[in-house]
Amino acid sequence: MSHEELQANVEYVTQADLNIYDSLECKDLATQAEKGRYLRVMPETLNQISVQVCLSEDDYPGWLSIIDLESLSPAVEPLPIKSFSEAQIKQLIPEVIAFTHNAMQQPNYYLWGGTVGPNFDCSGLMQKAFASVGICLPRDAYQQEAFLKQVCTVENFDANSLEEGDLIFFGTSQKATHVGLYLGDGKYIHSSGKDKGRNGIGIDHLSEQGDEVSRSYYQQLRGVGRVVSSYIPQKG
To answer: Which of 13, 80, 111, 180 has the CB geometry, 3.0–4.6 Å to 119, for a possible disulfide?
Structure first.
């Protein structure tokens, strides 16, 4: 795909795993687009370095290096959108959990913006784990928290109300900045950073009784949400 051929309001499909950046300079990673993902391009933003895009499945904006335009092709078919009932999602949770366990077994490190693997950030791991069974989630932790059905907050936290596959959110009182997947028995799996983290995928305890990493995240607990539907992207 050349820059002369770019069209607005047309969906393109990625023919390779691509990095999506947070600014037109393409220095810092915002997210990634796995081969086969759909995106829309804004030709009016084209410059010598990059062009602004929006990933179709989660409506996530970013900047694509102009060099990577050659890895785009016009979509032959519309973006496939599948809906799930809460019961269907519950049946798929064991597969979601299995994905995270398998991902942990691969050599990995924490990558801000990582969604493709083997290196993930926290919300990227959650998004990819659910995408592995066809369920779409928003991209960032705070967006995932807003999308999910609330189970409890830190103020009314009840460990007995949690189910396997729930997402546990951490951060400040203003915003969720981290997320993990509940495994049951007071444990959750997540990709955490270098500072007071594992620098990759690991399992921690949702308790003040764990090690330093577990305690640090428990002190930042915001609440718990449950995936009861698949995200439906906005129209063009």
So the answer is: 111
Buried b / exposed e over 3-29, threshold 16 CB at 10 Å, is eeebeeeebbbbeeebbbbbebebeeb
What is d(CA 168, CA 179) in angstroms, rounded to the nearest whole number? 5
Q: Please report how the helices 122-131 and 86-105 are oriented relative to each other, as an axis angle in degrees rounded to 10.
A: 120
Kindly give, in sequence order, each residue whose CB lies less than 8 Å from that of residue 64, ignoring residues fewer than 6 positions away.
18, 20, 21, 39, 41, 50, 51, 52, 53
Residue 217: name the closest of 193, 183, 185 by CA.
193
Burial (CB count <10 Å: 0-12, 13-18, 19+), residue 168: buried
Strand order in the sheet with 72-74: 29-33, 18-21, 60-65, 50-55, 38-42, 11-14, 72-74
Does a cis peptide bond (omega within 30 degrees of 0) precede residue 94?
A: no
Strand, coil or helix: 181: strand
Contact 94, 190 (CB under 8 A): no
* Tens-digit pLDDT profile for residues 28-55: 999 999 999 999 999 999 999 999 999 9
Give the number of other CB atoms < 10 A from CB of residue 157: 15
41: three-class secondary structure by DSSP: strand
pTM of the entire predicted model:
0.96
Contact of 205 with 214, CB cutoff 8 Å: yes
**What is the Cα gyration radius of the chain?**
18
